[in-house]
Design brief:
344 residues, alpha/beta, Spo0b-associated Gtp-binding Protein, Chain: A, Rossmann fold, 2 domains, 6-stranded mixed β-sheet, 6 helices
């Protein structure tokens, strides 16, 4: 399935039905009086986060969402039918932004309940509503309130316990494929991973979710190589796993490059617990590997774990350490919904 994490959606709530002008007409009733019913209320638009979706691809081909209009009132005090509500289902972790893609409307980090995105228009009053002691036969009725049309941006930020970050070709996809049930594309060239992937890890009776994002390059925090979009997917991770290729001749510079992008991006990434994992250790002799680890320790204050996903060495201890860090990091963030309810 194609992964889409940003979509523009035009949403319209239903208009209210018009009130009716009608008078009671019955045999032997000379002055029946007004009996025009009210118009029905227009349908509202709701948004709901559900756990069985993981992409916004549906909105690539469905950019307009319209609720139903209310029906007009009729005689004999009949109120018009209410317009049909429209419910938009999105993945858990979706942010709803305004048309300028700046103000946050809702942050759907859990799947509890529906949020009102746009209310439907009120139905108009029928002429029976305007009857009074001085006007026994009013011939006026209200029109229904028109619906509201707005443009929103839906932005998906995946939810995971740990996030893999690193330079291109650092072995992130291979690591994810070995430790989890995910089956990412693996190849010996940069940018094999083109979109984020999730994998569920089961280790010693514990389970947690790891997110793999495409490799970072210099300037990623400014949007180079879509890096700012990819970094947004690890904002909600409780632990970051920084993968470094131990075969690199400039291992310290590689580490600095990744950390600099995390720090420059901001939004709390620099403050998250971080574990540095040296990958591809099966390609180096033990004495050279020790030199690379010592070189990295001079610039890295994180926990350093050496693993080989291909040979399977160090994987069990690494996962045990990751599970402990996730547990120490505490529960996932609460709903980030705006403190002041948004109204159209």
């Amino acid at each position: 399935m194609q992964f889409v994490d940003l979509a523009k959606v035009i949403v319209r709530s239903g208009s209210g039905g018009n009130g009716a002008i009608s008078f009671r007409r019955e045999k032997f009733v000379e002055f029946g009086g007004p009996d025009g019913g009210n118009g029905g209320r227009g349908g509202s638009v709701f948004v709901e986060a559900v756990s069985d979706l993981n992409t916004l691809v549906d909105f690539r081909y469905r950019r307009h969402v319209n609720a139903g209009d209310g029906r007009a009132g009729r005689g004999k005090m009949c109120t018009g039918a209410k317009g049909k509500d429209a419910i938009i289902y999105v993945p858990v972790g979706t942010e709803i932004l305004d048309e300028n893609c700046e103000s946050l409307v809702f942050d759907l980090v859990d799947g509890n309940g529906r949020k009102l995105l746009l209310p439907g228009g009120n139905g108009g009053f029928g002429n029976s509503h305007f009857k009074s002691s001085v006007n026994q036969a009013p011939r006026i009725a209200n029109k229904g309130q028109p619906g509201i049309e707005r443009t929103f941006w839906f932005r998906l930020k995946i939810l995971a316990d740990a996030g893999l970050v690193g330079l291109p070709n650092a072995g992130k996809s291979t690591f994810l494929s070995v430790v989890s049930n995910a089956k990412p594309k693996i190849a010996d060239h940069p940018f094999t991973t083109l979109y984020p992937m999730l994998g569920v890890v089961s280790n010693e009776g514990t389970e947690f979710v790891i997110a793999d994002i495409p490799g970072l390059i210099e300037g990623a925090h400014q949007g180079k190589g879509l890096g700012d979009v990819f970094l947004g997917h690890v904002e909600r991770c409780r632990v970051l796993l920084c993968l470094i290729d131990c075969t690199s001749e400039a291992i310290a510079d590689d580490f600095r490059a990744v950390v600099n992008e995390l720090n420059s991006y901001g939004k709390g990434l620099a403050d998250k617990p971080r574990i540095t994992i040296l990958t591809k250790t099966d390609l180096l002799a033990s004495n050279l590997l020790e030199e690379r680890i010592a070189e990295l320790k001079r610039v890295c204050r994180d926990s350093i774990i050496a693993v080989s996903a291909v040979a399977g060495t160090g994987i069990t201890g690494c996962l045990r350490h990751v599970a402990a860090e996730i547990s120490n990091a505490g529960p996932k963030a609460d709903n980030g919904e705006c403190a002041v309810p948004w109204t159209p």
